[in-house]
Amino acid sequence: MNTPMIIDALAAVQQAILANESQIESLDRAIGDGDHFINVRRGCEVLVKLSPDLKGMPPSLALNKIGMKLLGTIGGASGPLISSFFIAMGQALHDAHEPDRRRFAAAFAAGVEAIKQRGKADVGEKTMLDVLIPVSRLLIRLVDEDTPLAALCAQLKDEAHRNMLATKDMIASKGRAYFLGERALGHIDPGCKTCEVAIATVCDMVLQQNTKEVV
Length: 215
Known about the structure:
Layout: H1 3-19, H2 21-31, H3 36-54, H4 59-71, H5 78-92, H6 101-119, H7 129-144, H8 149-166, H9 190-209
Helix pairs in contact: 1-3, 1-9, 2-9, 3-4, 4-5, 5-6, 6-7, 7-8, 8-9
């Protein structure tokens, strides 16, 4: 993983988010604040415009710059959470110019933990963590097992999708959906959908860019 891949991922995720606009907006209208997609779209646009400034930076500085930029860009509850994710990832990669898979997995876990601590949430509360935590745990395990890249990406995508769908059967204990009680049942968490789209997109991009077992 390097900074050019980060830049490419920003552009790819932006396009994927736009392609899923109607579904994400629909989910947020059902159980959210109604501004989730607007905030995520704004964040993606800002980061794509920021991309030229990231060139030549080590991944740690690029990720930190992304996090700091998002802190003043994305509104709502998700802004500080997503910002803390990137900042924590950058801190975890402080001395790595070309992080290998193991280092990247650890940094991703650090980012997820930052969201968990800042949001004071965990698995089973109908938030983005219901996708991010299982995916992070699986990534660490697959990397430890030296899983081939194609299989690793396929399993991560499946894990994200499966856990996203599982939020339909959850009653929220965090966020606006918490106030809906049982009325939130039957609806996928919009933050989980956004995370699932981003994870699947990055996995597909990595596979396309890598003919060797290098991440």
